[in-house]
Amino acid sequence: MTRLLRYTLLGLLIAAGLIALLVYNLTWRPGAKEAAPVGCSAQAPTLVPGQALKVMTWNVQYLAGKRYVFWNDLAEGDDESPTAEDMAFSLDEVARVIRDEQPDIVLLQELDDGAKASDYQNQFKLLQERVADLYPCSAHAFDWKADFVPNLHIFGSVGRKLVTLSRYQIEHAERLQLPVSPANIISRQFKPKNALLTTYLPLSDGGQIAVLNTHLDRVIQPDETLLAQVTAVAKVLDKYESHGTPWLIGGDFNLLPLGQYRRLPDEQRTPYSVDSALHVLWDKYPMIPTNNEASGIDRARWLTHYPNDPGLNGPDRTVDYLFYSPRIKRVEAMVRQDDTLRISDHLPVIARFLLPAVP
Question: Which CATH number among 3.30.2350.10, 3.40.50.970, 3.60.10.10, 3.30.1490.100 corresponds to the domain 33-354?
């Protein structure tokens, strides 16, 4: 080996090492299971077996609003960011809807914290300030975080959170990492790290209920990622069920219910598969909306997603759901559509349940 070749190889090794160090310092590597931050007032009441519980799940689209077609909405989408005025409007509107509905538990997805696209706002804190009198307890966890993403459409920091607000005591919370989309070892570090945020709420009889919040991957082309994530979620729920722990889960699953794929125009079908991976959950557990509701005669009432696509004039699919233990009884459910179409590209799913009574 010539001296020039040795120096060249050494230089390449040093360059590779520097790149690896840079990527390591810019990105975030959460553990498989970690404690999640919880804030809870001592005055918060404790859940009682058999009581009613109202739950809302809502992807609030980092308060960006509906006046934009972003780069990840369509191939020809713009690179612009929402204005401060638009984010302030959406923040006020999200708080208005929450205060109007006053659910006992609120599951929110896509609240930004330290992201360039949302002017580095801590949106969880901003929202919490507006509803603190209703929700003394909260938990939160990142599902996407990096100091710098080299994608030219982002070219800056990202920070996106799952947030759970509760009227009732939260004993503790944890973040559980879900399978990530396939990619090379470098680009994988900059991608979202989809997760479960699980909060454990104590019951007055000494038991507890597990409330889970999630946002599954948003794929461009169908692959095995969503199936792997749903399968991982199902294993967690199976564990609670086998232990006799009542549970609820809500979030943006980015998957269609039975029958909706064929109702979408060809150009809107790309991210989805004919056979929805969501069947892994609906085959086992009750779902809101049910497949009959989401694809039946009144299906328009159960649409939850209004993509930022100028070719659409309203919501056209269902991707947000609540699943719950068979031990819990559904009382009523709805998608709030009438006054939420301009706030986010998702609509809130709301349900009232009865918790299991003491045996």
Answer: 3.60.10.10
